[in-house]
Amino acid sequence: VDVKANGLDVATSSDATRVIVPFSGAIFVEWDVSMPDSSISVQSRSCHSIMNTAPPEAQMVFEEFIVEKALDCCATCYENAACESWGFHSPEHKCFLLRNVDDLHHQDHSCFGRIRGAMS
User: Fold this and answer.
1) What Rg do the C-alpha atoms of the chain give, in angstroms?
2) What angle do CA 77, 65, 61 make, to 5 degrees?
């Protein structure tokens, strides 16, 4: 079994391992107990944001797209290796995956988050 997210391997497996996703938000993993040193760990991804804030300029990784909430925008950024930061504009539910953000300014109904890299 191979587990992938957006085409990238997220887990290495063998014939003795089985991963089942029974419903959204849950993962069930089985493995042969005779496998030495078997372990699994799950870590949540932090999605901290700055409210009413947006970058005046940045390079967009993709064209803007629609998501239900800011956390969905952040999660999508994590799944794209080129994405360093994200922006969400709530009235239109628009998500922006960004990189090369150098500055921030006040913008009503927007939020900004960074998951990797640093502002120069």
Assistant:
1) 18
2) 45
Handedness of CA 115, 80, 100, 109 (dihedral sign): negative
Q: What is the Cα–Cα distance from 45 to 75, expressed in whole angstroms?
A: 8
Quickly count: other Cβ atoms within 10 Å of residue 23's Cβ.
6
**Residue 103 C-beta-side C-alpha neighbours within 13 Å:** 4
Please state whether the predicted TM-score (pTM) of the whole model is above 0.90: no
- pLDDT tens per residue, range 16-28: 455 555 555 666 6
At residue 114, φ and ψ (nearest 5 deg) are -120, 135
Distance (Å, rounded) from C-alpha 85 to C-alpha 32? 40
98-116 tens-digit pLDDT: 999 999 999 999 999 999 8
What amino acid is encoded at 113 in this protein?
A: G
Longest dimension (CA), the chain: 57
- CA–CA gap between residue 22 and residue 108 (Å, rounded): 39
